[in-house]
## 1
Amino acid sequence: MTYLIRGKLALLLKIIVVGLLSAVLLMLAQSAFAQHEYIISAFLALTMLALALTYLTKVSIPLKFFIPGILLLIAFVIGPILYTVTMSGFNYKTGNLVSKEEAIIQIKARAVEAAPSGISFDLKLGKYKGQEAILVSDIANLKYFVSTADSRIPVAANDVTLNEYGVAITAPDFIALTDAELAGADKSYSNVNFVYEGIYFISLEGFDAGIVSQQSLEYIADKDQFKNLINGSVYSDNGRGNYALPDDKTAILEPGWRAPIWFENYTKILTDPRVRGPLVRVFIWTVVFALLTVLTTFALGLLLALALNKPIHGRRIYRSILVLPYAMPSVMSILIWGGMFNTEFGAINTLFGTHIAWFSDPNFARVAVILVNLWLGFPYFYLISSGSLQAIPSELLEAAAIDGANPRQIFRKITLPLLLQILSPLLIASFAFNFNNFNLIYLLTGGGPRNELDGQIAGATDILISYTYKIAFGTGTQDLGLASAISLIIFVLVASISLYGLRKSKVLETFA
Amino acid sequence: MNIKRFGFAGVFAAFALAFSTLVAPSASASTEIVVWADESRGPNLVKALAQKTDWVPGYTIKVVTFSGFDALKAALDLATDSSGPDIVVGANDWVPAFAKSGKLAPYVPTASVKARFNPTQFLDLTYKGKLYGVPVDVNNVAMIYNTKLVSSAPSTFGDMVSTYKSLKASKGLKAGLCIAGGGMSWGAHSVFSALGADAYQFNSRGGIVYGRTFSATVFGQNVRKYLMDGKKSNGFFPATDTGCKDNFLAGTVPYAVIGNWEWADYVAKGFTMNLMPVPGVASGTYGHMFGSVSGALLTSFAAKHGTEAGAKSLLTNFFASTDGQVRYQNLEKRPPAEKGAQTDSSVSAAQRGFGSAASLAGIPQIGAFLNNNKGGASYWDSAPAYWTAVLIDGKDAVKEASKLAAIWRVNVEAGKGDL
């Protein structure tokens, strides 16, 4: 067995494993580089080097254990946080998603517009004296010509051969491309403006048709401006990710690009009435929701753990049943509960003979949210409370009983304080999790009810994260920059509350 | 690090480089046109395209199928130059956002392609004056009446309400008219319109009228008269679409608005396709229903892949041609958008029925207005909210209609610039 851990075979295996891993990383780095994702590419390349140095040299023995964790932490925690921080300073939304270079390419492409005449021709692709050319058939007027990037050569009707549709397929000095050659010629021919008349040219709309077109915009690289060739107006970089007219900020060219706007997304939270208006109400409900969820799930979980901590008949069966809600995918549970709360057909109203509009009334909707989360969350606290109860020394409880304490006093003065000390970090983690419990709200109530006719954006059960989602993605326009800014604020809030809680519960000191 | 270790590192580096060269992704072949579609259209496109090999000479066509429309949209959202498709078969209301973000590229139809479609269908796929694809199939709804309960077509909205009231107890009706297809906003527009509330107004020449909206008083009073019993719903029109299809099929609803993608379920249960628009309050008038199109949309990735002309040829030769649409819609079973395909003998009676209902009372679904939320809420959010407020919460029908009218007027005005 030793030869697998030490010796030449082990070394060979190590080289093979590290080699394979590095090859995959190198491939990914190449791929990222090819897609102009230079930071990702550099990170992957550095990861490959770090792995090689760590495992093929004796630079640091502890690093051999830590390096996978460190790299994953950088890739999946630190990286996304830094990206979110960066994007919160950008105008990054629908219409401003690409880079400036890409935006310029696309604006130029869109600036090719069909001429007002709306003329289109049947054509054939080929070469004219070695140059890329098209053989154009003006079937209505029985006129034919060859067009290249810089000239138009008329061809007499009796010099062309026509196919069954009257489209010219051969002409003097024109060599048509074969079907097999078309795919290879696609890119080069698509980029050519074939000469027509004056400012008009023919652009390809497939391999068989061309449209008489004109260039409506011209890019002036040295001034970084677009000039409208039809009315002379000039579009300049407005510093916010768009080319715009100087005297009309709403007249912009699309697409725009990601551009830094620094703290504007943060100030928007305070100044935009759509965002600012319901923020306080949503924040209060978020805190109440998270607190109530933690309290109710912990209370029920603990109660069941205490009940099943005693040797009762069928305890194993009860324990298995209690864990079932935890074992089921929460998405399924939430959707099933959503159906059960249906006003017309739901099992809850049918069972109790009521007609409560659970998801139409704000208070009932909030109660439903808490109840469903109680169902989803209590098994977790039951499990950890059961485990923690086992960890409390029985001598303590016995001593208290001998001293005359009744079971209620024992629980209040000994069991609960000890449990809280053990479980405080988990309670705080649960609070932080529920502060951002997007799935529950989104799938159960969609944040509602809300009165859309009165212009309400936030619903009665919206928490900060679902509200953020609505603001950022809810209207067909994705404002990723604003979403990043609100996410960071939520992050700071959760981190502050969690740190405060940890400090208050003195858990960190206990572990120190 | 000693010489031996350097040797190992050298071996390792050579091995890694050799292996990575083997597994490095090759550039996508430029002789392939990639089409993305949802789980329904994708497999049918594969079959239809396979029936001929020369849709675009020199190219092979690869169809990538996604699990649903949402998954397809999400994928297009995340698509990059290397991963994106050349053509995507998507909803008309995707056009504004994807065109704005540069994911779609303009397509200029030739005169012969233009002649094959109704101009309003092109409007569905237009953003800021540019067209981004070709219409593939028509999505609309129509009303069907249940011959197990009523023998003839109603001529007015009031007829339906009277029928419901007379049969309610004896037949154990769950509702009079309900929305089985398209939901309480898209599908229910024909009911809004039948009672007097259109999402946007047209003039006699078919142009949009800006700055004007429906009469909240007329609409609200119609709602009171036909759908309410005092402050409560009279049960004729449920505020949600839950259970509508099942109830109709079970014979407990006399009238239902159904979608043209689901007619086969009704035919299978023995219902005839007696399709018609929802009748208005006056005889001979009808509620307008949205007739949108799904489009084969050209992406900006095609130019990056070097397949732009090929992709445009596929749009023209397959998606916009009679031959292509007939072959495809014989499998997909939706009403084709192309005029020649609509009249083809192979198109089913149901497909024709939806087509004729659309021609009688169809209006284009204009995303620029309907998706806009400058009025405080989009059409999609405000329409179902009205039904909830009035039919469930018992709020005043006229007062809520005034709020709705104000929202829709602002949205239409604000969406003007995106057309």
## 2
Amino acid sequence: MDILRFATAGSVDDGKSTLIGRLLFDSKAIFEDQLEAVERTSRDRGTEYTDLSLLTDGLRAEREQGITIDVAYRYFATPKRKFIIADTPGHIQYTRNMVTGASTADLAIILIDARKGVLEQSRRHAFLTTLLRVPHLVLAVNKMDLVDYSEERFEEIREEFTSFASKLNASDLTFIPISALHGDNVVSRSENMPWYQGTSLLHHLENVHIASDRNLVDVRFPVQYVIRPHKTEFHDYRGYAGQVAGGVLKPGDEVMHLPSGMATRIAAIDTFDGPVDEAFPPMAVTLRFEDDIDISRGDMICRPNNQPLATQEIDAMICWMADSVKLRPRAKLTIKHTTRTARALVKDLHYRLDVNTLHRDETAAELSLNEIGRVSLRITQPLFVDDYARNRLTGGFILIDEASNGTVGAGMIL
Amino acid sequence: MLQRDYTTSQLDVLEAEAIHIMREVAAEFERPCLLFSGGKDSIVMLRIAEKAFWPAPIPFPLMHVDTGHNFSEVIDFRDRRVAELGARLVVASVQDSIDAGRVVEETGRRASRNRLQTTTLLDAIEEHEFDAVFGGARRDEEKARAKERVFSFRDDFGQWDPKNQRPELWNLYNAKIRKGEHIRVFPLSNWTELDIWDYIRREGIEIPTIYFAHTRKVFERDGMLLPESDVLERGDDEPLFEAMVRYRTVGDITCTGAVHSTAATVSEIIEEIAVTRITERGATRADDRASEAAMEDRKKEGYF
């Protein structure tokens, strides 16, 4: 059994919470005590049916205001897969949460209300999903029951969205007509839509192929921690621990250390459970090398003929996540990229992107909360980077405000 | 030639993620510690710490916040495990906090030291100048926990502000704090109760005996089975009876209920959980029943 991480985007009005409640309920991830609490609350509020959306409201302020404030993580499993849902709010002011949820997602579900069609917010969600390079996208056209399960309406929405998505170079795109409230095409195929030939949403989630989404080509091993036991038994032991960010490593492989540029071979790949004969993402292992090289946290192990770019100049798309400060040219920030932390100077803001129209405003002087723009940074020391499109782990970084210590920006290297 | 399929099992993915988080903390903080209660989640967390730094010893101490109202089987287990690892254990005692006048003992039938633990925990963090504290909490446990970060920032009062959390992207964690502040770190955030048990089975990890079915004198209160104990006041309307029970969670004896069970092995426990229809906290924790937002309120104050 493997894990599929998916993000859901849409507002309460689109029926997102109802859909998640339905998935949890029908896969039996909801327990009696949780269901009783929801039934009680539904009755108290005079709702006719059990309001499954109540299952996903976490914080008191959210229940009071009927909104979702933050990314919430939910879990369910079927015999085929374990699922982690990053449930992100859909309102415009929560772009930062959607970006956060999408950063680790294998798949994103965008909900569209069949009555309303493709809205500005649907376009924004699709854009953010492709910006964050979520490999698989599902357009769930919800509330089909309210348009009489009309095939024409579904096709209309499919066409409109497809023409928009072609501008985004969206990845694998799947359309599914559903009714989250009544369960049509959520877990099993609906009898109300015989014209629909595809699979149910859950079937798609269970079967979409994700193993090849990881980068298994470019060897990238950011050194995280140096292990030196200081025990008589392991007197001369020196291991370099980290999580594989790309490629497949094997004992005997020739590798290169950055920043030194020195080549060596992998002597062993160690784990607590014994040595292994290969390591690939997302394994966390400890490497030993044949030669004694000075290696520390923040360094990178790669292949001599396949190296990341070592650079102090970075061009990136930035999503700004702070309301207390703005991103402006000349600002100094802390940057955390793989296991390396350095300082960054904002050299230039090239443009601000309107996430609804994709219009580039080249006169923009700053980025505020939830705004996205293209930025050039100068870094105090070389970072070992790949294009974000090639590798999310060596192409993504966060920016930290040096006064508040808050995480204020997320960057994707171009 | 067949293309090798690099699929990774869910337990391997969760374990790798937790190891990465632990190493990140060891690299970025000066004085981390790991909360170890002898409960199943902290036992799994401790095994992952062992794996993350092997063959080196775990590079931080363990801490137990001791209410004094313990199951003796759990304390025996705790001490044996600490000795095996050669680890350093800090015991922060709620009784000491009461004696020092930092907190006042609750009285009456429903008295519990559960809430008092927060003060003891925060005092110990301050005294030992811990800047990162590992906890075994999981997001599937409770609504408020579902929204908490892996690196959860706490101000100098130890408080959690759910509306002002640091965004967490990819596998990048922001470890920046000022003196006096700290980070609660939850490496098992993405695990479910079933994942914990699957892992215990796969790894052959020892757990305290009270997790398995045994005969115990219990009484019923609010639909929960509480054990006969010197520290639990029992009314005349709460008669003792013998039952075959086990514990799904292990906490303070005064607010942790047992469930009827005949599960004698980890595999039988897993079968039982797979068909059970009540959450572990709903079934066994009086502390969460106080109100719909009970956990949220305690977490804001600095609870685990």
